[in-house]
Design goal:
Layout (H helix, E strand, L loop, with lengths): L1 H10 L4 E5 L10 H15 L3 E6 L16 E4 L6 H9 L3 E5 L1 H14 L4 E5 L4 H12 L13 H12 L2 E4 L2 H9 L8 E3 L9 H5 L10 E4 L5 H21 L5 E4 L5 H4 L8 E5 L4 H7 L2 E4 L9 H8 L4 E3 L1 H4 L10 E3 L3 H13 L1 H18 L2 H24 L2 H27 L1
Parallel strand pairs: 1-2, 1-4, 2-3, 4-5, 5-6, 6-7, 8-9, 8-11, 9-10, 11-12, 12-13
Helix pairs in contact: 1-16, 3-4, 4-6, 4-17, 5-6, 6-17, 9-14, 12-15
Length: 425
């Protein structure tokens, strides 16, 4: 029965989607930007009219959304001008880009467009990333129970409960929400990175083992796990690799390199800070091996998925590969031990047969775990069902209703106080 209902919704009048972005999408700067463009593509292909609004400043590297048929609107924090904007737009669906945006604008959406379906794109579980980072800096092992005392967790879980559906990029994080926070699976939807299938002919078009050179790391330097990884490479991993392979070269790419990042540039040691990549795909395709000794973080690692797409094997850690490969053989090696990490990196760089098998493993992971058609249709079906029967869905989310009630009371008046204060100043 649901199938026919969903089909009718799809064939009905055009639906409006409002995306409220934490930042303007920069797909060439971060995996988060690429993820947002994937979401826009899914809804656009299914006939949604999309408006993207953000309180963030414009940047030189933001993508031109109008080229994708998306309307752009700048909005203000703590301003009733947003109320006027959303009443006029009257969206059917609102997608919040990360929980911080839902905190700021969620109550205004609820008050002015109560019928709109509220989706939350978590990107990754911020509380998991924060708790792991804290444990790392305190030189202790992270425990799942650490999450229960994490301040960010209280805010993030409240945001998830207030929304009709949260898009989760990692199956491990869904398990955390189910088992640690007792979140009902009905308000969670697994949506990993979504890419096209890699066929045999696609693989043949990629540079061969012989045509590639150097190790590479790529990642936005504003993201703390990336900055930590580069430091770890420079101070610990790279000297071990150079000892075994004196001619080795590592090229480190990433958006927004600070002065402290640029200071790590040491050509005499084969360690090159290259800055922003004009074309990240081309950089990774030219490299022979991706190095990603990530020590804390959450979500799926866009850099490692990109490596698989480019046919470039990688060496990473258990944190780096978490929830990425469905227990299929990795696209290279997963190693937490420092000495073994360096040894496997040199092995992968030098042994063509091992390299080629690792490349094939990456293709298998992509084709099994990240097929766009497999997940995009499911997402649209669920959103369509929510559009039909949001009332019943919300009725069963009592804790979400409770939080909506109290958030509306508290946040609303705090925001109005800030707005009044800003006008006075």
């Amino acid at each position: 029965m649901h199938y026919f209902v969903v089909q009718r919704i799809k064939m009905n009048q055009t639906k409006k989607l409002l995306i409220i972005g934490f930042v303007w999408p920069e797909p060439n700067s971060s995996a988060a930007g690429g993820r947002m463009m994937q979401l826009i593509s899914i809804f656009k292909e299914n006939g949604f009219e999309i408006t993207f609004a953000s309180p963030a400043l414009h940047s030189d590297f933001m993508i031109d959304l109008t080229e994708f048929g998306v309307e752009k609107r700048s909005i203000e924090l703590n301003s009733s001008s947003f109320d006027d904007f959303i009443i006029e737009l009257n969206p059917d669906v609102v997608l919040f880009d990360r929980f911080m945006i839902e905190e700021q604008f969620g109550w205004r959406v609820t008050e002015n467009c109560p019928q709109a379906i509220r989706l939350l794109d978590t990107e990754d579980l911020h509380c998991l990333r924060t708790a792991r980072q804290k444990a790392f800096k305190e030189n202790r092992t992270f425990e799942l129970n650490d999450l229960l005392s994490e301040e960010v967790a209280k805010r993030e879980i409240a945001s998830i409960l207030r929304c009709d559906l949260s898009l989760m990029i990692s199956e491990f994080e869904m398990e955390v929400l189910n088992n640690v926070f007792k979140i009902d699976s009905e308000i969670l939807f697994y949506l990993p990175f979504l890419v096209e299938e890699i066929k045999e002919e696609d693989l043949l078009k990629l540079p061969s083992f012989e045509d590639r050179q150097h190790f590479v790391f790529i990642g936005n330097f504003l993201h703390e796990p990336n900055w930590n990884t580069v430091q770890y490479l420079k101070e610990v991993i790279w000297p071990l690799i150079k000892k075994q392979f004196p001619e080795a070269v590592l090229e480190v790419y990433g958006a927004y390199p600070s002065h402290k990042v640029l200071q790590l540039h040491q050509p005499k040691d084969g360690f090159f800070i290259m800055g922003r990549a004009a074309d990240a795909n081309e950089v990774v395709k030219r490299a022979r091996v991706v190095l990603a000794p990530i020590r804390f973080g959450a979500g799926l690692k866009g850099k490692l998925l990109e490596a698989m797409q480019c046919g470039t094997p990688s060496v990473t850690t258990s944190i780096g590969s978490e929830a990425m490969h469905a227990n299929l053989p990795w696209n290279g090696f997963i190693e937490n031990d420092i000495a073994k990490f360096a040894k496997q990196a040199v092995l992968l760089y030098g042994e063509e047969n091992t390299w080629k098998q690792s490349q094939k493993n990456g293709v298998a992971i992509i084709n099994e775990c990240y097929q766009k058609n497999k997940y995009s249709n499911k997402l649209i079906d669920i959103v369509s069902l929510l559009l039909i029967d949001s009332e019943n869905h919300r009725l069963h989310n009592f804790m979400g209703n409770l939080l909506q009630h109290h958030t509306l009371k508290s946040t609303k008046y705090m925001a109005k106080w800030i707005e009044a204060k800003n006008k006075k100043d």
